[in-house]
Amino acid sequence: MKSRYLVVSAIITLILFSAGYVHAQSNIPKLKYQENKLLEDEIGYTHAIRNGNTLYISGTTATGEMDEQIKKIMEDIRETIVKYGGTLQNVVKQTVYTTDLDSFMANKIIIKSFYGGEYPVSTFVEVKRLLLPQFKVEIEVTAILPSVRP
């Protein structure tokens, strides 16, 4: 009886796949942008992935003092978005991870200046440590781009 159930389940699944009701997750088109392929493969991530009009950018870091890190990170994020045909005004969500939230907030004018008043939804999280001890801030964003480009 159990084997008959498995056969019936397999037939139903096959019918649903062939009719287009069930889609395998591997069919999701992803356009990858790797900034440093060797490092990304070593750690196990991709810098940015575009799916349709949505661009996901991994946490971006820099070194230096807090103000220098924020400026460099935002410049790098802007550069990635431009490569996909967008601007920072396309950013709809950002998450900021920092080892010193007070220091980050004291420098918030820097990040605000990059958005020109068009701020995304944001989350600010203080963490014990980032990937490398010299990183004080890491920012990840999601952007909705104006149109799909091949």
Which key phrases capture this entry?
150 residues, 5 helices, 60s Ribosomal Protein L30, Chain: A, 38% helix, single chain, alpha+beta, 6-stranded mixed β-sheet, globular
Strand-helix topology:
Elements lengths: L1 H18 L11 E3 L3 H7 L4 E4 L2 E7 L5 H18 L7 E8 L2 H6 L1 H8 L5 E6 L10 E8 L6
Parallel strand pairs: 4-5
Antiparallel strand pairs: 1-2, 2-3, 3-6, 4-6
General description of the model:
This protein has helices at 2-19, 37-43, 66-83, 101-106, 108-115, and strands at 31-33, 48-51, 54-60, 91-98, 121-126, 137-144. Helix content is 38%, strand content 24%. The protein has one domain (29-144): RutC-like (60s Ribosomal Protein L30, Chain: A), CATH 3.30.1330. With 150 residues, the chain is α+β, with helices and mostly antiparallel strands. It has a six-stranded mixed sheet with strand order 1-2-3-6-4-5, covered by helices on one side. A hairpin with a 2-residue loop joins strand 2 and strand 3. The model has no long low-confidence stretch (mean pLDDT 85).
Concise structural overview:
Helix content is 38%, strand content 24%. It has helices spanning 2-19, 37-43, 66-83, 101-106, 108-115; strands spanning 31-33, 48-51, 54-60, 91-98, 121-126, 137-144. Strand 2 and strand 3 (54-60) form a beta hairpin.
